[in-house]
Write a structure and sequence with these properties.
Structural class: mainly beta
Strand content: 35-45%
Shape: globular
Number of strands: 65
Helix content: under 10%
Distance between the termini: 50 Å
Radius of gyration: 27 Å
Length: about 775
């Protein structure tokens, strides 16, 4: 890759991740996603079966002890009108920044998921996004007062309460695309920007900012570092390193000996030696004279990839985080390096921090999350409990309502309880960049993946995801962006990079290319109607949709009226109407199209649709159409004639919805960029059921009154996930549990009898401290 092409790629890396076609849309990073956060609130009627809202009895009966009132958990909160609730999984994410405060709290800045905090050395994480309206946290810095500063593509945010709340502090920050931060011993804050701004300085704790670019000829400031004398070093992408010895008033280029001008990381040791990490495999450089001259220090640094992160520990050891090669360590000031990746299962390392005990934390990309080493890098362990910032590109649900989520970078996760909990199921799955999922009538699961790191293609599981085998058989050698299965069990794989369509008639054992008449081989979507006609959406060719009426043997272009031809999603309703979700071109076109004549003609259906880059489509049993887009989620209840924005509850609000599915109970599932999986608060196919509860004691025994509304049949009463009784739909039931004592909790839910149309979950607790 030449430097000009790489520069173009770097611009994309810093700007957007919403367009996912490799040939013309970048895969790497989101820009400007916004988060909607409501305050913590009491929930008695609840907002969804799998929300993080927990209700507690608040009333008493005469002579009875009241159970404690419990509030919604901290983190990503919901309002009573939200359409979606987070399932709090899968765990992981892209961790762009890390920092540790004086109390040992660790903060992680993620791409799309905002900020997370750990108060127990990384064992658990909590989202801390109250007031953080830009959730791409690219830089973190903490001053001597413990104030935290977060650099985002929405400017700088400040927290004075360890992340509990954030305030935007952007006065004077005319170019708000912040990618680096540093604070000097006097408390002055310096912010480096994506290309176009340069360096800003605040001398009043972020209240106001001044641009200080005198002598700084490159405004793409990837990293900042400050030595004990207050000298500031700015690493630029393309012009090497600049130094200021007057608190940023003026800058001079200090590149003697620096043979690679694309510098993306900096670190300074206790002796003042400076280490600079380069892009394009340029390695590490060291200066022992305050930047006056540099020498390469690469012995043992066996990598041709970017040095994204550098850190010097209190013992003087230097660690380098490499994009794709994990972590290297030098114990002799950079003279020699050795790779230290034991336990580091995610090797795209972007960030570091360390604490007073010498523990090292590494933030990774492609969903890997955070890893911790407590033995100076000898071993690493994943620490992602509660860190939900994953990039979910595919969702599928089987007949048992097990949910499978395909992530981009960390493989496949499975939930067998409707999204309450998730487990990674990657045994045998060597391709971890999953783009498509499909399940046949026998329950066999097929996963299509991009070819990254030498693995990709189609994988199959015949045991509900417990194990996978590669069934590409050397035939499928390009990225698999779409999968579809017809009523006969024939599988169709849509591939990108001119691969076209492949068909398997033996459950994936063998594949045959079926591309006759298909002049564009960039397949991004597939759908099959009840007659067996196959529709293939293409991208990057200007062709649009192809149709095959003979099981893939021949294809014909069917684009009459389809004015946007990059077709990322296809879905077919029970009445045979075909819906195509398309991408805009530089903001022109895109959105939704419908065909009512089997693809012969198309009409634009964008009334109420405000996001025109559509990634995913799903249709429920009522014929309601759901669209996931770079900009949120939308629903049409009248065959696409009109659309309503249903993004409320998504984190980030208006973010990128990659994938959609409808489970067996009619609940909608959304896979997002940076927020994991969300589930609709209510079933989308029947009326919602709302449950509330009051707990009290009768002669010391636990008793709970349940009341509900919205059910239309007899209801099953669930306590702790087990049906305890089925009762008429009276709207009221008393559960006389007959148990005495304290520190006990019960989880209640009511469902229409024999269905999964259920209420919100309500937790009632007797005695003991509040729930964590």
């Amino acid at each position: 890759m030449n430097k000009k092409s790489a520069l173009q790629l770097r611009h994309k890396f810093a700007s957007t991740r919403k367009h996912s076609v490799s040939a013309f849309f970048n895969l790497r990073v989101l820009i400007g996603l916004f988060v909607f956060l409501a305050g913590v609130f009491l929930v008695l009627s609840g907002v969804g079966t799998f929300s993080n809202a927990f209700a507690q009895a608040k009333g008493t009966k005469p002579g009875a002890n009241a159970a404690q009132v419990e509030r919604a958990k901290a983190g990503l909160q919901l309002t009573g009108d939200d359409f979606w609730a987070s399932t709090h999984g899968p765990q992981g994410g892209d961790v762009l920044a890390l920092a540790t405060n004086a109390s040992g709290y660790v903060f992680a800045g993620t791409l799309g998921g905002g900020a997370f905090r750990s108060t127990d050395n990384g064992e658990t994480w909590t989202a801390v996004n109250n007031g953080l309206t830009a959730t791409d946290v690219r830089a973190l810095a903490i001053n001597s007062d413990g104030y935290i500063f977060a650099g985002t593509f929405g400017g700088v945010f400040r927290s004075t309460d360890s992340g509990d709340t954030w305030t935007a502090v952007n006065n004077g920050l005319e170019y708000p695309f912040i990618i680096s931060l540093a604070i000097n011993p006097s408390g002055d804050i310096f912010a480096g920007t994506f290309e176009g701004g340069g360096v800003y300085r605040s001398t009043d704790n972020g209240e106001s900012w001044t641009l200080i670019n005198n002598g700084l000829t490159n405004t793409y400031v990837y990293a900042l570092a400050i030595n004990t004398s207050g000298d500031i070093f700015a690493a630029t992408w393309g012009s090497g390193i600049f130094r200021s010895t007057d608190n940023g008033e003026s800058w001079v280029e200090v590149n003697v000996g620096l043979t690679e001008p694309y510098i993306i990381s900096l670190a300074i040791n206790a002796s003042g030696d400076i280490f600079a990490g380069a892009d394009f495999g340029g390695g590490v450089f060291r200066s022992t004279n305050n930047g006056d001259s540099w020498i390469p220090v690469d012995n043992g640094l066996t990598t041709s990839n970017n040095v994204n992160a550098l850190i010097v520990t209190s013992s003087g050891d230097v660690f380098a985080g490499i994009y794709g090669d994990g972590v290297f360590r030098s114990t002799d000031n950079g003279e020699n390096w050795s790779q230290v990746n034991n336990g580091l299962t995610a090797t795209f390392v972007l960030s570091f921090t360390t604490n007073a005990s010498g523990d090292i934390f590494a933030g990774t990309y492609f969903g890997g999350g955070v890893f911790r080493s407590s033995d100076n890098g000898e071993t690493w362990s994943e620490k992602n409990n509660g860190l939900v910032a994953t990039d979910v590109r595919a969702i599928a649900v089987n007949a048992n309502n097990d949910i499978f989520a395909g992530t981009y970078g960390i493989g496949i996760f499975r939930s067998t309880d409707g999204g309450t909990s998730w487990e990674k199921v990657n045994n045998g799955l060597s391709a971890l960049y999953v783009r498509s999922l499909a399940i046949n009538s026998g329950g066999d699961i097929f996963a299509g993946a991009d070819f990254i790191g030498g693995a990709g293609g189609v994988f199959r599981s015949t045991d509900n995801g417990q194990s996978w085998i590669d069934v590409s058989n050397g035939v499928i050698t390009t990225d698999v962006r779409a999968l579809a299965i017809n009523s006969s069990g024939d599988i169709f794989a849509g591939t990108y990079f001119t691969g076209g369509v492949f068909r398997s008639t033996d459950n994936g054992q063998s594949w045959t290319p079926v591309n006759n008449g298909l002049t564009c081989g960039n397949i991004w979507s597939l759908a099959i109607n009840s007659s067996g006609d196959i529709f293939a959406g293409t991208a990057g060719c200007g062709d649009g949709v192809y149709r095959s009426t003979d099981n893939g043997a021949n294809w014909a272009l069917v684009n009459n009226g389809l004015t946007s031809t990059d077709v990322a999603a296809l879905a077919i309703s029970a009445n045979g109407h075909i819906f195509a979700g398309t991408f805009s071109q530089f903001g022109i076109g895109g959105g939704m199209f419908r065909s009512t004549d089997n693809g012969d003609t198309w009409t634009e259906q964008n009334s109420g649709f405000t996001a025109y880059d559509v990634n995913a489509l799903a249709i429920n049993s009522a014929g309601h159409i759901f669209a996931g887009a770079a900009g949120g989620a939308f629903r049409s209840t009248n065959d696409g004639d009109n659309w309503t924005d249903i993004s409320s509850g998504l984190i980030p609000l208006g973010g990128n919805v990659w994938a959609l599915a409808i489970d067996t109970g009619g609940y909608a599932l959304a896979g997002t960029a940076g927020g994991g999986v969300f589930r609709s608060v209510q079933s989308t196919t029947t009326g919602g059921i709302t449950l509330s509860a009051v707990g009290y004691r009768v002669r010391g025994k636990h008793t709970v009154d349940l009341s509900w509304s919205g059910a239309t049949t007899d209801v099953d009463i669930y306590r702790d996930s087990n049906v305890i009784t089925t009762v008429p739909n009276s709207g009221f039931y008393t559960d006389s549990i007959g148990v005495r004592g304290g520190n006990v909790r019960y989880a209640y839910q009511v469902c229409e009898a024999g269905t999964q149309n259920c209420s919100n979950e309500v937790i009632v607790r007797f005695g003991g401290p509040p729930l964590p």
